[in-house]
Structure formats: C-alpha cells, structure tokens
C-alpha cells in the first residue's frame, strides 16, 4: 500500500512539475516585448526578484539532507530559479539607469538572505528542526508569491471586468496548486500543503470571478451593439471575448505566480 501511495505521489509531482514549468515560462511573452522595445516600460522587476528568492528557498527545502522524498520539489524550483535569473538579467539590461541600483540592491539582499538561511539551517539545526526552519521560510515566501494576485482580484470586483485576469493563467495556477496539494497530502508534508492550499483557493476564486464577470462584459457589449443577424452577432461576441483576453494577458504577466 505504501508503494502505491508513493507511486501516486510521484505521478502528481511530475504533473505539478509540468504545470509549474508552464507558469515559470509565461513571462517570456513579457520579456519578448521588453527585448523588442529595448525598454522595461511600466513593468516592475520586484515580482521576479521575490519569485527568485521563493524558488531558491523551496529548492533548498526539497534537497535530500533537508527533507526526504522531495527531489521533485527541488528540481522544479531549481529550474524556476534559473529561469527567474535569466528574467532578472534581461530586466537589469533594459531597465533605466536610475532603476538599476534598486534592482541590483534587491538582488544582492535576496542572495544574502538565502545564503544566510542556508548556512543557519546547516550549522544551527539538525533533523526535524532543520526541516521546520527551512519549511517555514519556504512556506512564508510561497504564500507571499501566491497572494500577489489579491490586488488583481480586488480590481476585478471593483471594475466588474476580467481585463487584467486572463483565464488560462488562472487555470494553470489551479492545476499546478492542485497537483502539489495532493502531492503534499500523500506525503504528509504540511509546508507544501499550506502554501499550495492557499494558492489553490486563490486560483479557484479567480476562476469564479472570471466566469461571473466575463459573461457580464460580453453581454453588456452585445446589448450596446446594433442588432445583427444571429450568425454575425455570435462571431462578434466571440471576437470580443478573444480580444479582451489577448489585451489583458500582456498586462497580467507582470503579476505572475507557479
């Protein structure tokens, strides 16, 4: 029975890796725009710095001498840290000179914070206490990362519009967090379970809001149009929703999550 549970957990870990990798790669569209325009424009580098720190802490937590059986957590977050580092290098290259110092200072602080946490965990803690220390640190920053869409949720409720909350990004968050939450429950890991449980709850809220306000927006736009025949009117509605998603996707990329 234990072998079956371990196999099921491993499968959900693989699925979680795939979904989380997709989330890490979503900002490539943003950075494609930055490279094309040779400017970071209104984008902020802070989310990428914080995600980089979260990936480092989570990857450290997944290493065998911290926790056992969490190598999939270490691999995906290690890959995420490498991806975020590339994003930060590109952002630093194209950000205005007055912002370079701020980004560089935050990056140095993140490296020092992670190095300090890693050294303390190895020298000052052992066994369960080491797992508790590293797990707590990783959980806190994971919750901060997953909680970043709260501002978008407030915006959606206030404006009754999903313009800045694309469906597929929210859907991917739900899939990723669902896989990791099940993985955590099967492995009896409260640290991964708490952070991904929070992310799953927020992702579900985003999907509910999307279906509530997307329909209303399409309906309002339809009522404002000049009545057309059914076929043409239906095409306009589909195009309206598609254009809305496309225009919003670029703006939401700066508020990512996995």
Structural summary, described in words:
This protein is mostly helical. Helix content is 81%, strand content 0%. Helix 2 packs parallel to helix 4 (71-94) and helix 3 (46-62) runs parallel beside helix 5 (97-123). Residues 217-258 have low confidence and may be disordered. The chain crosses the membrane at residues 6-31, 43-63, 69-94, 103-125, 137-157, 164-186, 192-213. Its main location: membrane. It is a multi-pass membrane protein. Mediates both low-affinity uptake and efflux of sugar across the membrane. This is Bidirectional sugar transporter SWEET.
Number of strands: 0
Number of helices: 10
User: Which structural class best describes the helix and strand composition?
Assistant: mainly alpha
Shape: globular
Low-pLDDT ranges: 217-258
Distance between the termini: 30 Å
Secondary-structure element order, N to C: HHHHHHHHHH
Mean pLDDT rating: 81
Percent of residues in helices: over 70%
Strand content: under 5%
Q: Biggest β-sheet: count, sense, barrel?
A: none
- How large, in whole angstroms, is the Cα Rg? 21 Å
Subcellular location: Cell membrane
Keywords: Cell membrane, Membrane, Repeat, Sugar transport, Transmembrane, Transmembrane helix, Transport
Protein name: Bidirectional sugar transporter SWEET
GO cellular component, one term: plasma membrane
């Amino acid at each position: 029975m234990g072998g079956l549970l371990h196999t099921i957990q491993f499968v959900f870990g693989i699925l979680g890796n795939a979904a989380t990798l997709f989330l890490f790669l979503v900002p490539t569209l943003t950075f494609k725009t930055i490279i094309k325009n040779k400017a970071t424009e209104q984008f902020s580098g802070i989310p990428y710095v914080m995600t980089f720190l979260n990936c480092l802490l989570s990857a450290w937590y997944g290493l065998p001498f911290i926790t056992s059986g969490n190598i999939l957590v270490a691999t995906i977050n290690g890959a995420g840290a490498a991806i975020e580092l590339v994003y930060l290098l590109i952002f630093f290259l194209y950000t205005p000179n007055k912002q370079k110092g701020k980004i560089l200072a935050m990056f140095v602080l993140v490296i020092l914070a992670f190095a300090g946490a890693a050294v303390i965990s190895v020298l000052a803690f052992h066994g369960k206490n080491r797992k508790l220390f590293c797990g707590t640190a990783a959980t806190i920053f994971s919750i901060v990362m997953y909680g970043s869409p709260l501002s978008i949720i407030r915006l959606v409720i206030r404006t009754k519009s999903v313009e800045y909350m694309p469906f597929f990004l929210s859907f991917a968050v739900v899939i990723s967090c669902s896989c990791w939450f099940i993985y955590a429950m099967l492995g009896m890991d409260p640290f991964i379970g708490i952070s991904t449980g929070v992310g799953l709850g927020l992702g579900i809220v985003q999907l509910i809001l999307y279906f509530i306000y997307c329909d209303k927006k399409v309906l309002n736009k339809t009522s404002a149009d000049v009545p057309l025949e059914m076929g043409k009117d239906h095409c306009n509605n589909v195009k309206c929703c598609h254009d809305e998603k496309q225009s919003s996707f670029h703006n939401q990329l700066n508020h990512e999550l996995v």
